[in-house]
Amino acid sequence: MISNPLLETKNVGKTFGGVIALKDVSFSVSEGEILGLIGPNGAGKTTLFHVIAGKEQPTSGTIEFRGRGITALRPDQRCHLGVARTFQIPQPFSQMTVFENVMVALHFGAGVHARSLEDEATDILSRVGLNRWASEESVSLPLGARKKLELARALATRPTLLLLDEVMGGLRPNEITEIMETIRQVRASGVTIIMIEHVMRAVMGLADRIIVLHHGELIAEGSPAEITRNEAVIEAYLGGSAHVSA
Ligand SMILES: Nc1ncnc2c1ncn2[C@@H]1O[C@H](COP(=O)(O)OP(=O)(O)OP(=O)(O)O)[C@@H](O)[C@H]1O
User: Fold this and answer.
1) What domains are there in the chain, each with its CATH number?
2) What is the pLDDT at residue 123?
3) Stretch (H or E) spanning 13
4) What is the spatial distance between Cα 67 and Cα 233, in angstroms, rounded to a whole number?
5) From the CA of 189, how far away is ligand 1's center (Å)?
6) 88 Cα: distance to centroid of ligand 1 (angstroms)
7) Minimal-distance CA residue to ligand 1 atom 13
8) Is-contact 110 158, C-beta < 8 A?
C-alpha cells in the first residue's frame, strides 16, 4: 500500500440482491497519480465509482479521503471535500447552455464573486476545447462535446480527485487524442485522476498505474506494461485468446 494515499478503499464490498458487484476491494491512489481502472463489462468499475463518490453505499468496507473516513458522507459533501466525477452517459442540465452548466457547477464548488466565476467558466471551457459551444443548449451537443462538458462540469467543482468514467467512449480517434491531452493538462494542474476506460490506447498512454477488476474482485495491479503481460488479466479480459495491447 502507498504511504499517505489521497484515497484509500479498504475491503469494499457491494451487493445488489444476489449480485456481488464488488468483493473485498482494497486499493489506494497517491496524490498526482493517474490510476487506470479497467476490466471486462460488468466487472464492477462504475459501481466502485458510485461507492467512492457516494451515489451508492458499500455493503461492507470503508473509504478514506485524505486520511478521513468519508463512507458515511453524502455525494455533495464528498464533492465539497474535492471528489468529483463524470458519468458514462453525460448528465448535463439539458435545457441550459454549455456555459450555464459550468456556472452551476462553479457556484456549487465555491462562493466566489459572480464576475470571477464567469471568467473561470470561460477558462474551463477553453481548457476542454468547448468555447465555440458555450452558448449552445447542451441538449444539442454532439457526443464528443457532451463528453467534454461532462469533464468541464466536474472540473468546475475544483476537484482534488477526479473520477473519469469512460470519457473516451464513442469518440473519434482525433477526439480521443484531444481529450488525452486535456487529461494530461488537468493532472499537471495538480489533480489526481482515476479513469475507467475501455479505449486501451488512452488508458495505457495516460495511466501511471492500472488496477483490474473482474467479477467484482481486484485481480491485478501494475504499470501499463506489467498489466499487458499479466496472465490473469489476459484470461479475464479476453478469455486467454489474445493480448491486452496498447
Ligand atoms: N443498481 C443495480 N442493481 C442491480 N445490479 C446492479 C446495479 N448496478 C450494477 N449492477 C450489477 O453489478 C455488476 C457490476 O456492474 P458495473 O456497472 O459496476 O460494471 P462495469 O464494470 O462498470 O461495467 P461496464 O464496463 O459494462 O460499464 C453487474 O453485474 C451489474 O449488472
Assistant:
1) 1-81+162-169+194-246 (3.40.50.300), 83-158 (no CATH)
2) 93
3) strand 7-16
4) 30
5) 32
6) 12
7) 21
8) yes
Over residues 96-119, mean pLDDT = 79
Q: How far apart are CA 54 and CA 228, in angstroms?
A: 31
CA distance 120 to 97: 16
Count Cβ neighbours within 10 Å for each residue of 34-60 and write b for 16 or more, e otherwise: bbbbbbbeebbbbbbbbbbbbebebee
The pairing of strands 192-196 and 161-165 is parallel
Closest-CA residue to 244 (of 196, 199, 177) = 199
Q: State residue 7's pLDDT score.
A: 98
Count Cα neighbours of 194 within 13 Å in the Cβ-side half-sphere: 27
Closest atom of ligand 1 to 47 CA is 18
Mean pLDDT of the chain: 91
171-180 long-range contacts (CB < 8 A, ≥24 apart) are 171/143, 171/144, 171/147, 171/199, 172/144, 175/144, 175/147, 176/201, 176/202, 178/129, 179/147, 179/148, 179/151, 180/205, 180/206
- Ligand 1 centre to CA of 85 (Å) is 17
**Strand-by-strand arrangement of the 60-65 sheet:** 19-29, 7-16, 60-65, 68-69
**What is the tens place of the pLDDT at every residue in 214-233?**
999 999 999 999 999 999 99
Taking a C-beta distance cutoff of 8 angstroms, is the pair 117, 106 a contact?
yes
| Residues near ligand 1 (Cβ within 6 A) | 16, 19, 21, 39, 41-47
